[in-house]
Structure formats: structure tokens, C-alpha cells
Amino acid sequence: MNLEAKALDIRKDIIKLIYSAGCGHIGGDLSVTDILVDLYYKQMNVDPNKMDDPNRDRFVLSKGHSVEALYCVLADRGFFDKKELFDTYSKYLSKYIGHPNNKINGVEMNTGSLGHGLSVAVGMAMAGKMDKRDYRVYAVMGDGEMAEGSNWEAITAGAHYGLDNLTAFVDRNRLQISGTTEEVMTADEQEERWAAFGWNVISIPGNNIDAIDNAVELAKHTKGKPTVIIANTTKGCGVSFIENKAAWHHKVPTEAEYQQALKELDERRAQL
Amino acid sequence: MNKIANKQVINDVLLEESAKDKDIVVLCSDSRGSAGMKSYAEQRPEQFVEVGIAEQNLVGISAGLAACGKKPFAVSPASFLSTRSMEQAKVDVAYSNTNVKLIGISGGVSYGALGMTHHSATDIATMGSMPNMRVYLPSDRFQTEALIRSVLKDEKPAYIRIGRNAVEDVYEEGNVPFELDKATLVKDGTDVTIIACGELVGDAKAAAEELAGKGISVRVLDMYCVKPIDKDAIIKAAKETKLIVTVEEHTMYGGMGSMVAQITAANAPVKVINLTLPDAPVVTGKSREIFKYYGLDAEGIVKTVTEQL
Ligand SMILES: Cc1ncc(C[n+]2csc(CCOP(=O)(O)OP(=O)(O)O)c2C)c(N)n1
Ligand SMILES: [Mg+2]
User: Fold this and answer.
1) Which of A185, A245, A249 to mutate to test the interface with B (most CBs of B within 10 A)?
2) Does residue B250 surpass a pLDDT of 90?
3) Does B288 contact A at CB distance below 8 Å?
4) How far apart are CA B196 and CA B247, in angstroms?
5) pLDDT per residue over A120-145, tens digit each?
6) What share of chain B in percent tops pLDDT 90?
7) What's the gap in Å between the CA of B119 and the closest CA on chain A?
8) What number is the average pLDDT over the span A168-176?
9) How far apart are CA A134 and CA B281, in angstroms?
10) What is the rounded CA–CA span in Å between residue A61 and residue A99?
């Protein structure tokens, strides 16, 4: 499968979903898309019809506000009906709420309050070790989210227990709601911080699927410690006027912007 | 329709007062936009602290500032402020009795379809159960202003919850009856008392007007002071009216209605019906849709009163 093309198609779905629902965290969705695409279309062992398989890989979207990206990937992978998602997302009485919810097939854990996912992933990885199962656990955090102290408790524990079945991602897009991470609360030297806590650290261009895939492979072959992939991403990646703008953290495109976004994505896809 | 959200009023009052009182400090946790605190942050950079997405640190730092004579206002979404930083609120603020004002924004189910992680329908229970912590849920922009001006004069902990969007006025410019820690009598009546807090006071008032048309005389109490709750007003209502209906944007256990039931049971037993959110994850919807679904809006209140009387 051409994962780059898939990532552009997923981006189009995200834009359509947010535009039609009138809400959504568009910037963070577009920055995390390539990570999700590599995990769900290539790396992870997950089957929509076997979500009760104890050996399945586990995924936790700790930056739960990027739910539109996760929903679009899960729907496209057949975890649930895409039409149902598009018809009801965020609407009255829908189960497709604005953050991941484990009533939905494919969603392992409810998130939305930042700073929970990594601890949960540590627990999942620990259970895998206890039961001698070889599934892997993945979690994605935002870089603004890394300010939550709970992350650093989980990081300490992950290294302490040598959880080499755990791979964390930091979506290092350098933006959060109120501005750049460096203005709001410094997040620089992510690599040095994680390394100091005992993790295997891989720093990559985070919207490059090959780089993501190589890093995930390297993580699988790293023994004795968990791996973090610092994914240096662009918030809003793929749509010129959304890229690198804090204001697009949570914003809905106008009709003209919507058309423009789809056009840009189509053009990129044609160039592949 | 009023367009000024309660949070905007808080920003404006703090902006004004902080010019005169350099000890006022506002703290946010990547929340200045949703808190309506942007103009404060821009105009008072030296009296503004950004802590990033770290609500525990937000409240701990606030307590430290207060211990050194500052007057901190920690402004963050009610959901995270009342749960993530609950132990800081309990130990560093309430137990240590520091002058920290916790402002929970976008409270209750204001975040609508963002779901349970973002709802704060347990904050009366958590914050109210802490000795020393006061809990206020103002109803409209006028009362919010009166409340903020009032707590600026004291040096005790308080948790104040407000919603996300502008709500209909309950009071009028220049006519805002307010006495700290006394319920406000919105409307007097003799058959039933509706006790409401926060942004549902407007619905209680509308329900009372509709019930008046049906010949039912309704007293409406605005119990913005959930803690210390106005016991005298509750006991008086219990003695003078046949039924009390409480209305709040909170889960069913440990909220304002529970407190009213506790007080009436001990002092003046009367039938008390609590209209609340359920003891279950709430349905998806905008806050008004959620209120309607659970019968917390004017229509639902009218229905309950007519059925129960
Ligand atoms: C505990 C908690 N505090 C605050 C929020 C509100 N919030 C949602 S997204 C966000 C910014 C996240 O920034 P970042 O982690 O960098 O994510 P990204 O840039 O990938 O969107 C904030 C503050 C939250 N969801 N949870
Ligand atoms: Mg970010």
C-alpha cells in the first residue's frame, strides 16, 4: 500500500469530517496523521473483527483531542461504518464524541484529559510482560501535553520496568493552544529529557512515513528499555494556510478554505 | 440575548482591580483563551503567570504565591481544575487556608460533545467536601461581577464555577440584589420553591413564570453560594412551601440538591426533588440539548413541579 497516498486521503477525510460537523481539533489531527497511518496500515497487529484478541497490539491516543484523525483511520480500516461517523460525529446522542471513547470498536482507552495515556500504556505493557504475550503498546502525546507531571512519572516507571514492548511518540509540532510551546512552557530538549530518564530516544522528521516506519522498526529491536520517538511534525501538516498556526488548534474551515484545503491535498496526491 | 459571558466579566473586573492592587495575579494553564483572560494576559504581563498544561502545578504555585502575600486567581477548565489538581486544592489551598481563588471555567457540561473528560459535573461534591473551601456558582454576568468584587475583599479559599458561553440575564443592570453567602430571592411564592444554582437559575425563573400562568405560586432561590449554603433560606422555604425542587448542573450525589435534602431532613422535613445530571455518563449534545434530555431546562422543571405538587 502507498502509505503516503493513504495519509493524504485520511487528511481529506479529516477536513471533511470537521467541516461537516462544524467542530474539531484540526491542527493536531493533521500533525499526527502520518504516525497513525504507519501504525494502523503497516505496523500494528490489529483486526477490526478481533478486538478481543489478547495478543493484539494496543494503541492509546493520549492527545485525545486529535480524535478526528483516529476516527477517520479506524473507519477507513473497517472498525466501524464511515457513513455513521460522518452522519453523527459530535451530534446529539451520537456515540462519536469529541474525544476517544472505548464504546467505539477500535478505541482501547478513553482519553481527552491530557497526561493520562502514557501511564495507561505503561500498565498495558506491564500486563503484556506479566502474561508473557508479545503484543506491543503505542501511545502518542502532544508536546504541550508533556508539561503534565504525570507523564514524567510514567516515563520513570516505563524505564524502571524495562518495558521494551512500549513505544511512545511525542508529536513535536511546537504549538499548543496559547502559542508556541517555548512561549507557553518550554518543551525543548525533549530528547535529552527522555534519555536522562533511561529511554531509547529516536528523533525523526515526524510527517515522513518512511522515517516513522524505520523508527518503529528500530524500537521493536531495542531490548531492555522503552523507546520514545520524538516526531518533529508540522501542526496542520498538508494544508498551507493551516500549517504552523496556533489559531488552527481548534477551528473550522470556511467553505472557501474547505475547498482550498481539499484542492491542495488533491494536488499533492497527484504529484506522488 | 445577552452576549457577555460570565468569564468575560471576571477578566474585566480583574483587569480593573489589578491596576490598583499589584498583588492580584492571574494564573492560567494554556487556558487564557478559553478563560476569556486574553486581554488581562496582554495588559498585565507582570501580574500574569502561564504554567502550561499542568493543572497541579497551577494550584500549587498559586498556593505558594498566596503564602507570600499575593492574591492569586487560578483560571482553568473546571473539569481539570476540580479533579487533576484536587489534592493541591485540598492540601495547599483548603487545608492550608491560603488565599487562592480557583476559577473553574467552561463548567458543568459546557463543553458539550467533547464528552465526559471535559465535563465537570462532580465539582460541587469534590470541592464542597473540603473543609475551608467555599463553592460558588453564579447565575449571570451581574451576579458574577458582584461575587468577584466581594471575594476580592476576603483572604480565604474559594472555588467559583462558571460556564462557557453567555447566558440570559437573571438580574438587571443597577438592580442586582447580592449579599455574600445569602441566597438571592429571585421571585417569591407560596406553593413550591425551586432552588437553583449557576446557569440553570435562568431556567428556574422561566419555569416559575410559566407555572404562575397555571396558578402555581413559585418561589425561586438563587443558591449561588452552594457552600456555605444558605441554611436559613432553605429551612424557611421548607416551612412555607409544600415542595422543594432543586436544579443544578451536577451529578446526583453530593451536589447542591443533596445538601438541601440534608438540611431539610434535619430541620423541616418536606418533599425535596433533585433535578440533576444522572449518575452515568451524559449523552452527547450541546449543553442546552443535554439540559433538555435530563429535564433540567424550564420545560423539564415545569413538568416536574406539576407532577410532584
Ligand atoms: C488535563 C488537560 N488540560 C487541558 C486540556 C485542554 N487542551 C486540549 S488540547 C490542549 C493543547 C494541547 O497541545 P499539544 O499537546 O501540543 O497538542 P497538539 O499541538 O498536538 O494539538 C489543551 C490545553 C486538556 N484536554 N486536558
Ligand atoms: Mg503541540
Assistant:
1) A185
2) yes
3) no
4) 5
5) 999 999 999 999 999 999 999 999 99
6) 99
7) 10
8) 98
9) 34
10) 9
The number of C-beta contacts closer than 8 angstroms across A and B is: 86
Q: Which of B103, B87, B110 is nearest to B277 (CA)?
A: B110
Give the pLDDT score at B1: 80
The predicted structure's pLDDT at residue B2? 87
CA of A178 to the centre of ligand 1 (A): 10
Residue of A nearest to B42 (CA): A178
Q: How close, in Å, is residue B37 to chain A by CA atoms?
A: 11
Predicted complex ipTM: 0.96
Please report where in the chains the cell 453567555 appears, as a residue.
B166
CATH topology of domain B6-161: Rossmann fold (3.40.50)
Which residues of chain B make contact with A17, given a CB cutoff of 8 A? Answer: none
Residues bordering ligand 2, an ion, CB closer than 5 Å: A 142-144, 173, 175-176
- Cross-chain Cβ contact B118/A110 below 8 Å: no
Q: Tens of pLDDT along A86-128?
A: 999 999 999 999 999 999 999 999 999 999 999 999 999 999 9
Domain boundaries, chain B: 6-161, 184-308
Q: Domains in chain A, please, with CATH? A: 3-271 (3.40.50.970)
Architecture of domain B184-308: 3-Layer(aba) Sandwich (3.40)
Cα B275 from chain centroid (whole Å): 16
The atom of ligand 1 lying closest to the CA of A65 is 9
Compute the average pLDDT of residues B10-25: 98
Query: How near does any CA of chain B get to the CA of A266, in Å?
Result: 30
* Residues above pLDDT 70, as percent of chain B: 100
Residue B19 Cα, ligand 1 centroid: separation in angstroms? 31
Asked whether A113 lines ligand 1 (CB < 6 A), one says yes
Residue pLDDT, tens place only, B146-199: 999 999 999 999 999 999 999 999 999 999 999 999 999 999 999 999 999 999
Chain A neighbors of B286, CB-CB under 8 A:
92
Q: Under 8 Å CB-to-CB from B115, ≥6 apart: which residues?
A: A97, A98, A99, A101, A112, B281, B284
- Which of B50, B54, B115 is the closest to A99 by Cβ? B115
**Domain B184-308 in the same topology as domain B6-161:** yes
Q: How confident is the model over B61-87, as pLDDT tens digits?
A: 999 999 999 999 999 999 999 999 999
Which of B 193-222 lie inside 8 A of A, CB atoms?
none
For residue A77, give the nearest of A135, A20, A37 by alpha carbon: A37
CB-based contact B53 A64, cutoff 8 Å: no
